[in-house]
């Protein structure tokens, strides 16, 4: 099943994305990937205090959340930052903010009447 990148992010679909962003290790990995260059697991493991297996698990979570893309190069998999997930998060938060603004406006009108 393919995902329509123009479709709004639904609350149930936002959970994995925000869960992925809610982990300090994954945020650290994202910050290392934001240079736009593909990085191998070995590079991302250096200085992290984590095993390659642990880093791989975190990268899989980020990939499912559409925050990184894996690229196979020979025997090695490299990971690169993907802004798709962040753009979806931004759109979702803007939609939620608009809904709250409307609810507050309705409440204000109710209270003032």
What does this structure look like?
It is a single chain. The chain is an alpha+beta fold and 113 residues long. The chain has five helices and three strands. A three-stranded antiparallel beta sheet has the order 1-3-2. Strand 2 (68-73) and strand 3 form a beta hairpin. Helix 2 (24-33) packs across helix 4. The protein is elongated and about 70 Å long. The termini are far apart. The model has no long low-confidence stretch (mean pLDDT 87).
How far apart the termini lie comes to: 49 Å
Rg calculated over all Cα atoms: 18 Å
Q: Which residue ranges are poorly predicted, with pLDDT under 50 across at least 5 consecutive positions?
A: none
* Bulk shape: elongated
Which features would summarize this protein structure in a list?
113 residues, alpha+beta, three-stranded antiparallel β-sheet, 12% strand
Would you spell out the secondary-structure blueprint of this structure?
Elements: H1 11-21, H2 24-33, E1 39-40, H3 41-45, H4 52-64, E2 68-73, E3 76-81, H5 84-112
Antiparallel strand pairs: 1-3, 2-3
